[in-house]
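Trying the structure run again after the queue cleared.
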Amino acid sequence: MPGKGRGTGNGPSDESGGNRQYDLAERTAVFGEAVIEFAKRVPRNVITRPLITQLVKAGTSVGANYGEADEAESKRDFRHKNTIVRKESRESKFWLRMIVKAEPSMAEEARPLWQEAKELHLIFCRIVRSCDKAGEGNLVDLDDRNDEDEQDE
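Done. Tokens:
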């Protein structure tokens, strides 16, 4: 799948063993779709209903906000919107964890979604950090203090 725009990076290997460019707009959309499909399979009860709602909101927001970032009106706006994407991907990991706590039978199915949310979070941490290093972001973001810890998970 060819990459385009700012949202490209090395993605999974293709069948020939080489790396292919991975379009972040597509990757975040696929993540949102996978979250929706997962949410449909989670058993509904008084505990899981609000967790499912929160997961769907966060998981689909990753792609929606990435689309906004890709159309940013300024470098500062680009950084700010990618900060939102970073936070939504982190939040997706949290809601997946809570769903598995409430419904342990979903653990195996949640694991690849959690891993993808983690990878997306790390990608967007790097994008925001790159903006900061380039002097493109003048916003103070206290959540950056946790980014290094996330890489060790």
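Confidence is low (pLDDT under 50) at residues 1-21, 139-150. Worth checking whether this holds up in the mutant runs.
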